Amino acid sequence: MPRGRPRKNPDAAPAPKKTTKASKTKTASATLGFEQQMFLAADKLRKNLEPSDYKHVALGLIFLRYISTAFEARHAELMLDDPAAAEDPDEYLAENIFWVPETARWSHLRDNARSPGIGKMIDDAMLAIEKANPDQLKGVLPKDYGRPALDSVMLGELIDLISDIGMGDTDDKARDVLGRVYEYFLGGFAGAEGKRGGEFYTPSSVVRTLVSMLEPYKGRVYDPCCGSGGMFVQSERFVETHGGKLGDIAIYGQESNHTTWRLARMNLAVRGIGADIRWNNEGSFLRDELKDLRFDYILANPPFNVSDWWNASLEEDPRWQYGKPPAGNANYAWLQHILWHLVPDGTAGVVLANGSMSSNQNSEGEIRRRMVEADVVDCMVALPGQLFYSTQIPACLWFLTRTKKQKGWRDRRGEILFIDARKLGKLVDRTRRELTDEDVARIADTYHAWRGEKNAGTYEDSPGFCKSATLDEVKQHGFVLTPGRYVGAEEAEEDRVPFTERFAALEKTLKEQFAQGEELNAKITASLKLIVQKESV
């Protein structure tokens, strides 16, 4: 198993100076506490409002605070250098900053937070911002703050709360803080909504696992069912963390739920991430908005086991290279759609239900066989349970590629890596588990070593955790791709203890158990005699 080693893009700028493990932990804990306190305080204000409704109220205001903060910081700079330029929208567009009209600025809303008409003021602000930035924000922002169901006092208190978010000393720090608050709120609302919330949000630890394994340094990144955009945020964060810069990757996506599409657009805007995210209510199968594009990296968490996806127009679709998917389950439609969109040396990571690894219903087993024989399955990861808000169905990760003889890596043709991560993760509450940073690193490092990446260490099979299997071995297992079938049992700890020591310990335990047994037999015999005596009387 490879241990910690430096990883960076050889073509990128030097990575930022590393902090110690202790300082990282301290910083992360402090940030989490702040974000959690903010969410709990905001959630308390919603009272009887449903989380699915209140989500847009809170997130919309955080977004408004973000773009206003960025605008006002730039406005102050321009006022010092050239006051006339401060009123030119192009000066802001050049810096990837939205133009915010005066009555839509956060300072104006904050000053009027206790006004009975604050709801209408917010709606007017959202309309004004969309009108001033039609290319990026048309139809994106929520504009129903003035409805009677929203208490103006609650809105005022929420504005005050969001105003208290510390911005730091720089605009970049402000963006980072608000972006993290927005991201934490997305996860918080997904948890509060349960199954419905999970449809727009993939747990952060699952996304980090995908991103850490794929390492999207440069090129096009695509998600055909992008939800609220978490895959893209983590991809950009990965690039920046490893010495790259914003813009090293180009982001593309599609989403069929309009409300979720709006969340994704705001989520990316809060992080300052430019992206081409398309929406239509037909979805990626029936109306592939990006059908002529191919991508270097694809990350996706499609809805599990969708049964109502089929349409007769898909009968002869060229995407079904390995067989027509069954009408009752879209799992293998997603896999083939994603393979279709990969460049020749691209890689993809896909979250699917565990059943996809072994199902033989309808044509699924045959499609899986053809995919294995075509050597497009690179790695399979079995995930621990309880990771997702939306379902208790066990999940897995599929990693796909069109070629296993990629430049700079070893020739992996005829092999598949199996990782069984079901024992990893820690419970964060009674119902949900998360993969820790160490878990994510262990999974990703194993994959990188197996691929033969530079400085990735030497790969070795680890009983109970990982196994590099040949296609012949997979064939012997009937083309079932469940990692547990290949990794075997974990080596028992006792096997490392000398036999004489283990025998002595067992002998001692056995003697103690014999003594306990004799003592228990004596007590039972005495009790039976007492019962007989009482019955005789």
UniProtKB/TrEMBL annotation:
GO terms for biological process: DNA restriction-modification system; methylation. The keyword Methyltransferase applies. InterPro entries: D12N6_MeTrfase_N, DNA_methylase_A-5, DNA_methylase_N6_adenine_CS, SAM-dependent_MTases_sf, T1MK-like_N_sf, Type-I_RE_MTase_Subunit. Its EC number is 2.1.1.72. Residues 174-495 form the DNA methylase adenine-specific domain. One of its GO terms (molecular function) is N-methyltransferase activity. PANTHER family: TYPE I RESTRICTION ENZYME HINDI METHYLASE SUBUNIT, TYPE I RESTRICTION ENZYME HINDVIIP M PROTEIN-RELATED. This is site-specific DNA-methyltransferase (adenine-specific). It comes from Acetobacter orleanensis.
